[in-house]
Amino acid sequence: CVAVPSTQLAIGFFLPLLIMIFCYTAVIITLQKAKSYKRHKAVRVVIVVMLVFIACHLPYNLALLYDTIIYFEHRDCHAESLLRTAMSVLQTVAYLHCCLNPLLYAVIGVNFRSHFSRIFQNLCCVGKRYIAQRRLSRATSDIYMSTVRRSVDGSTLGHV
């Protein structure tokens, strides 16, 4: 009973946190060696991504740890209900984190914003081209069908 939440805490929070700390530390060290004037912005993005991960996941995992520790204690119904509600809300916030990373990169990262806007503009242009091709295709089909109808009617059979 206690093994599942403990494993979830270890694999779902501490392992990703350690991997992120290791990888982002390597990124920050590499950025500090770079002579680019934009390195401070990149470091800021890394720090914000880490802080948002911790802010989203730490409360849920602390509640999970608390729930695991008091698992065998007697609790009244009201306290149990409050804990379950808090766990649901905090779990939702933790899962919401998956959606936040792209938004963080979009809001904080200047290059990401410019690339994203270019991709969005290209998608809009492709969509417009697709619609234009469909209209052109429909017009071509209408012309073809009207030619077929006239030839079946015999109105253009003798004329070349």
TrEMBL record:
<protein>
    <recommendedName>
        <fullName>G-protein coupled receptors family 1 profile domain-containing protein</fullName>
    </recommendedName>
</protein>
<feature type="domain" description="G-protein coupled receptors family 1 profile">
    <location>
        <begin position="1"/>
        <end position="105"/>
    </location>
</feature>
<dbReference type="GO" id="GO:0019722">
    <property type="term" value="P:calcium-mediated signaling"/>
</dbReference>
<dbReference type="GO" id="GO:0009897">
    <property type="term" value="C:external side of plasma membrane"/>
</dbReference>
<keyword id="KW-1133">Transmembrane helix</keyword>
<dbReference type="GO" id="GO:0060326">
    <property type="term" value="P:cell chemotaxis"/>
</dbReference>
<dbReference type="InterPro" id="IPR000276">
    <property type="entry name" value="GPCR_Rhodpsn"/>
</dbReference>
<keyword id="KW-0472">Membrane</keyword>
<dbReference type="GO" id="GO:0016493">
    <property type="term" value="F:C-C chemokine receptor activity"/>
</dbReference>
<keyword id="KW-0297">G-protein coupled receptor</keyword>
<dbReference type="GO" id="GO:0019957">
    <property type="term" value="F:C-C chemokine binding"/>
</dbReference>
<dbReference type="Pfam" id="PF00001">
    <property type="entry name" value="7tm_1"/>
</dbReference>
<feature type="transmembrane region" description="Helical">
    <location>
        <begin position="43"/>
        <end position="66"/>
    </location>
</feature>
<dbReference type="InterPro" id="IPR050119">
    <property type="entry name" value="CCR1-9-like"/>
</dbReference>
<dbReference type="GO" id="GO:0007204">
    <property type="term" value="P:positive regulation of cytosolic calcium ion concentration"/>
</dbReference>
<dbReference type="GO" id="GO:0006955">
    <property type="term" value="P:immune response"/>
</dbReference>
<feature type="transmembrane region" description="Helical">
    <location>
        <begin position="13"/>
        <end position="31"/>
    </location>
</feature>
<feature type="transmembrane region" description="Helical">
    <location>
        <begin position="86"/>
        <end position="108"/>
    </location>
</feature>
<dbReference type="InterPro" id="IPR017452">
    <property type="entry name" value="GPCR_Rhodpsn_7TM"/>
</dbReference>
<keyword id="KW-0675">Receptor</keyword>
<keyword id="KW-0812">Transmembrane</keyword>
<keyword id="KW-0807">Transducer</keyword>
